[in-house]
Amino acid sequence: MAKYFSPQEFIKCNPSCRIEQMNPEFLELLDEVRETAGIPLVLNSAFRTKSYEQMKGRSGNSAHTRGLAVDIRCKSHENRFRIIQAAILCGVRRIGIGKTFIHLDVDKSLPQSVIWDYYD
What we know:
The protein has 4 helices and 5 strands; from the N terminus they run ααβαβαβββ. By secondary structure, it is α+β, with helices and mostly antiparallel strands.
């Protein structure tokens, strides 16, 4: 299903999920991002249920609930640049930047060509 991502990586996500819950085209794009970045992409979070999102005080309309988003662990400035550069080169148009992760999603139902941060 994915070249660089195994089913076990999705089970380790918080919350745990299954690779089958992810959009297959998005997984192909993640493989392309990983290859372009030239570094491993360790997933913190992938698919989330609407009820999980709401339990966390969110709307439940996240791209995560449609299998169209991941949060990638990232703790160095160099890797942050490589991941973001690769994502943009591969066509990702929704990027969130946190202190220890990068959010990538391709949900076309949400605003496009945006980068935001989670620093507040």
